[in-house]
């Protein structure tokens, strides 16, 4: 029997969402990069610093997001570090956009919009990816089913099943 979770409609939805996120990322990257560049230059940094700093902020966001996604797909709790880096990077990007905006509230909202749109759209895509991993695990057996049960426990707040680390299972592998 075919897996109802991998229908062409689901693939089309994820493809359209991915295209939307890529488009928003391109728009936000251009606008946000320019804002961060201007802010860094305005505060006396060199042009090289102004060129590289926005990339470090966006890179940190991307790496933290992928770390969270990998942990979710493996059914692990992510811990404080990736969440902290994601929040700090997102806040830095948003703050830089707002800092270079025109003083009226409308100017600041306009400047903040690309970052907010990208953050929201990216999270929606990550939810779809996590959901597809969960659906794949539901239709699988063995390790996939175990990862699914652990993932479900992580996302519902239930306790994670206890596992003995590999080095404690076998006498030769003990540290």
Explain the layout of strands and helices.
Elements: H1 8-42, H2 47-74, H3 80-99, H4 105-139, H5 143-156, H6 166-169
Helix pairs in contact: 1-2, 1-3, 1-4, 2-3, 3-4, 4-5
Q: What characteristics describe this protein?
A:
175 residues; mainly alpha; 6 helices
Supply the number of structural domains: 1
Mean pLDDT: 80
Helix proportion range: over 70%
Report how far the terminal alpha carbons are from each other: 46 Å
Radius of gyration: 21 Å
Poorly predicted runs are none
The total beta strand count reads: 0
Give the count of helical stretches. 6
SS content category: mainly alpha
Task: Summarize the helix and strand pattern as letters.
Answer: HHHHHH
Largest sheet: none
Q: What is the beta-strand fraction?
A: under 5%
What general outline do the C-alpha atoms trace?
elongated
Transmembrane segments: 12-36, 48-68, 80-100, 106-125
InterPro entries: DUF2637
Biased composition (Basic residues): 163-175
Keywords: Membrane, Transmembrane, Transmembrane helix
Descriptive report:
- This protein is 78% helix and 0% strand.
- The model has no long low-confidence stretch (mean pLDDT 80).
- The longest helix is centred in the first third of the chain and has 35 residues, at 8-42.
- The chain has 175 residues and is an all-alpha fold.
Give a brief outline of the structure.
The chain has 175 residues and is an all-alpha fold. 78% of the residues lie in helices and 0% in strands.
């Amino acid at each position: 029997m075919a897996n109802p979770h991998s229908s062409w409609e689901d693939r089309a939805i994820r493809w359209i969402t991915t295209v939307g996120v890529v488009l928003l990322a391109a728009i936000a990257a251009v606008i946000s990069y320019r804002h961060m560049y201007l802010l860094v230059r305005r505060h006396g940094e060199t042009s090289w610093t102004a060129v590289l700093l926005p990339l470090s902020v966006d890179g940190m966001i991307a790496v933290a997001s992928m770390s969270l996604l990998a942990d979710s797909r493996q059914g692990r709790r992510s811990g404080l570090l990736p969440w902290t880096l994601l929040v700090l990077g997102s806040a830095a990007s948003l703050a830089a956009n707002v800092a270079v905006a025109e003083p009226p509230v409308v100017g600041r909202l306009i400047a903040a919009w690309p970052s907010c749109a990208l953050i929201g759209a990216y999270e929606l895509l990550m939810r779809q990816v996590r959901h597809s991993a969960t659906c794949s695990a539901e239709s699988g057996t063995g390790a996939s089913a175990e990862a699914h049960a652990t993932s479900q426990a992580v996302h519902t707040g239930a306790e994670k099943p206890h596992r003995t680390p590999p080095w404690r299972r076998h006498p030769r592998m003990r540290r």
